[in-house]
Amino acid sequence: MDRFRYGAPMAETFVTVERRPDGVALIRLDRPKANALSGAVLAQVHGIATDLQVDPPGAVVLWGGRRIFAAGADIVELGDSGAGAVGASFADALGALAAVPRATIAAVNGYALGGGLELALACDFRVCAEDSRFGLPEVLLGVIPGGGGTQRLPRLVGPSRAKELIFTGRQVLAEEAVAIGLVNRVVPPDDVLDAALAWAAELAAGPVLAHGLAKSAVDRGLETTLATGLDIERDAFVTVAGTEDAARGIASFHENGPGKATFVGR
Length: 266
Prior knowledge:
Layout (H helix, E strand, L loop, with lengths): L14 E5 L4 E6 L6 E2 L1 H16 L4 E5 L8 E2 L1 H7 L1 H16 L4 E6 L2 E3 L1 H7 L3 E5 L3 E3 L13 H9 L1 H10 L3 E2 H6 L5 E3 L4 H13 L3 H14 L4 H16 L2 H13 L10
Helix pairs in contact: 1-3, 2-3, 4-5, 5-6, 9-10
């Protein structure tokens, strides 16, 4: 059985992508009423993320709309299909998103709970509304996060804070979320998408190959020893030093000082 179709056959489009002229790819979740992450939704996230790996944009924004980011896994499908199928779908879809070799930003309005928070954690950065809420409430059902929450959250906020949030299932408001490093920026609710897109456009105009190599070095380094991580960094440094962007950046530094280079993504 196709792990991305563990529920009903996929017919509707719940996830779309728009490639904007500024180099930003905007991924939009739209599964009424709460953007529950069904098998169809995860399949579509996986497909789009895989395409973005093959043909990367300058940066990526993931948005769930003005009311809610994502409420989590589809509980009905969890009962029908079993934890193994659901967990595999989350692992593959969110893993594909995390592997996009460009900066990815989750733009969070409303709630990001359970699998919704795990989806946001698979992005590099998070911009949220002042009234947004985050949490991993799986323990309230007698289970644990199964879409990466026990692994990505402690790497972001530390193991003690992560355990407290996972063990209690409590929701975190935006003020606390930014204080503990769960989110990067907090803005008024009406400004979330625009703020994320503006940040992404700024990143997309930069040395995107360097972004991708730095992202890979950080993510791979977190999975291994410091010595191996330093080897990974050195290899990435040698690779990026041979790019046209590096040549442009160095030449611009000598001619005009820092921060004035124009990059071309090669």
